[in-house]
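Researcher: Structure prediction, please.
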Amino acid sequence: MRRWPGTFTGRAGGRLSLNLAGSSLPSTRLDVSAPDGSSLATLTAAGSGGFLDTRTLPLSGTYTIAVDPSGSTPVSLTLTAYDVPADAAAGAVPGGPAATLPLAVPGQNGVVTFTGALGQRVSLKVALSIPAKLVLRRPDGTAQVATQASTTTFIDVIALPAAGSWSLLVDPIGAAAGSVSVNVYDVPADVTGTLIQGGAPLTVAMPVPGQGGRLSWTAAAGQSAVLKLGAVGPALKVSVLRPDGTTLLSPSWVFGSGQFAITAPVGGTYTIVLDPYDSQTGNATASLL
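Model: Predicted structure follows.
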């Protein structure tokens, strides 16, 4: 057994993170002890190392770090301790400019808050170059959406189930650090319209990320038509719903233009759903032949 002890002076309330890096490390245990000898944190790492996420120091004084690689083969490793500042915070307004979070130190998180109304439709675009966990929280603190991303990601439109202060937590994974920007969009209702077979095409404008289209078609039982989509700016998923809301045409992708043969199994009003890909925006024309 080999133990490497090290010390540092900490202050009560300070925030510490640690990065243990090496090459082909065996199973390695890292222990951090407070000035009174109590355990603050333990990390087990292997391979290229590991990361101890932020811990708040309970006492002022001298802390001890013990690193214990397993086995008898010599190892070379680098241990970096970070003095983690308070989590970054920024406010956003739905439909306003992007909020920026500077996450400069490994272990530092960020939170973007915005005020939403009950039933308000919002979508979010998170531009990041570092892997991170994203959690959109309701005003009561419970999670509405939780996901993980390593590149720019989009949270599709949500009709807010509660009014109040919403928050998006950005929690970088491992020792990642960088800058993140978050757009919160105020999404209008989906575009609606009525298609008449043989009639003029309808133009569906979808200028806000998360906005789509819902077009209606009233048909008799057994009536057949060809749904034609053209001048499609964004990549679109198109589907057709029966009068009872069940799926007649499963979601299918359209790039630029496309057409689909549909037959009404029962008489009634059918709904044609247009759903742009990710945060893409633009226009499309729709007609029934």
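Model: The mean pLDDT is 93.
Researcher: Thanks, that helps.
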